[in-house]
Amino acid sequence: MFLRHVLSPHVLARPMLALGLAIALPVAAQAQIRNAPAPRALEFAAYIFSAANVCGYRIGVEQFEALLEKQNVKAADVSPRGPFGGKVQTIFALMSNQMQLNREQACLAVAGEYGPEGNVAKNVLLPAAPAGAPDAAPAEPAKPAQ
Hints:
Elements: H1 2-6, H2 9-29, H3 39-55, E1 58-59, H4 61-70, H5 75-78, H6 85-101, H7 103-114, E2 125-126
Antiparallel strand pairs: 1-2
Helix pairs in contact: 3-6, 3-7, 6-7
């Protein structure tokens, strides 16, 4: 009786189905699996965002993206709506609060590292635009209506 139960098609079908799924699922999911950015890359992004928030600096987009690329991370991955944006926002909140406690020294320190004359990387953080100034000048002046 036991032998007939062990050799029944239903008992043999379950392990075969499980084996088939075990082989098929990793192949199908392989295209969607990505490695998470290194924690250091997430901390770097949060640090730059915190400095911009607390100190009022503008972010030099090209330099920022270049430093992220060196760490094999895309800027879209660490943006607030990116796949790792939640982690960056958590780190950002903690860093912003700490920077705010000692704002003057924190802003001087971050400018020395990533500002126009930075010793780690130059022009990642740029001075704040003067009040009322547009972010970018228009390509050509507007022509008056005739």
